[in-house]
């Protein structure tokens, strides 16, 4: 069943708890579709008056901040062996390559990696545990965690909610025109995201190539 169709069968209080729990577990380091749940719930709130978008955003924000903090504590206590254990349990998400990429981001950006990592699926899972493993000062982590959690969870909820309200109004007046517009917006967003992803991948590849030592020519 589609996520949104399933959410329509769940009481509002349960949706608040579900969003907070899933996002919290994802932030803690468990690969879960937190962003999909948040977007679907915010869109559902725009169509049903029983779901309060403010409460929804607050629950999502709380889950993000608390989950990241727990992940930080676990990472600080578990250290490198924890990353090895996660790699064995979740090889798709915690492979050595992904861990190395996340570590380079932390080494380059510091606390900003925690902040901006909230908006990137891979770093969103890594941010808390990896910050603890790398012994980032907690006050720095907490500031980035709170700001990133509020902006990502609250901002996503607000944007999707108001887009849903406007889209529903347009669809009622101009059903086919609204559908075409929604498709164009979605296609444009997808192309922009893909272009940015390719640019980031190219930059990372260039950084790795620059960091690798040049081969020494063989001598007779």
Describe the structure.
The protein contains nine helices and no strands. With 220 residues, the protein is an all-alpha fold. Helix 2 packs parallel to helix 4 and helix 3 runs antiparallel to helix 4. The longest helix is centred in the first third of the chain and has 37 residues. The protein is globular and about 50 Å long. The mean pLDDT is 76.
Number of helices, counting only DSSP H or I runs of 4 residues or more: 9
Helix content: over 70%
Rg estimate, integer Å: 20 Å
What is the 3D shape? globular
Structural class: mainly alpha
- Terminus-to-terminus distance: 68 Å
Pick out the low-confidence regions: none
**Would you count the extended β strands for me?**
0
Which whole number gives the mean pLDDT? Answer: 76
Q: Biggest sheet: strands, sense, closure?
A: none
Order of helices and strands: HHHHHHHHH
Fraction in beta strands: under 5%
């Amino acid at each position: 069943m589609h996520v949104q169709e399933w959410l329509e069968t769940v009481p509002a209080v349960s949706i608040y708890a579900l969003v907070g729990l899933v996002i919290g577990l994802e932030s803690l380091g468990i690969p879960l579709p937190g962003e999909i749940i948040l977007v679907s719930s915010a869109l559902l709130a725009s169509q049903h008056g029983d779901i309060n978008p403010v409460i929804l955003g607050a629950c999502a924000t709380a889950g993000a901040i608390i989950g990241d903090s727990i992940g930080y504590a676990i990472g600080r206590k578990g250290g490198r062996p924890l990353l090895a254990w996660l790699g064995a349990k979740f090889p798709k998400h915690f492979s050595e390559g992904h861990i190395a990429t996340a570590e380079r981001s932390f080494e380059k950006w510091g606390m900003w990696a925690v902040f901006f990592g909230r908006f990137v699926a891979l770093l969103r899972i890594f941010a808390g545990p990896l910050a603890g493993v790398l012994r980032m000062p907690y006050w720095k982590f907490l500031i980035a965690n709170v700001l990133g959690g509020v902006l990502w969870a609250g901002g996503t909820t607000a944007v999707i909610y108001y887009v849903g309200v406007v889209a529903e109004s347009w669809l009622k007046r101009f059903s086919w025109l609204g559908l075409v517009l929604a498709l164009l917006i979605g296609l444009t967003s997808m192309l922009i995201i893909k272009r940015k992803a390719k640019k980031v991948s190219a930059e990372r590849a260039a950084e790795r190539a620059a960091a690798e030592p040049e081969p020494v020519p063989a001598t007779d």
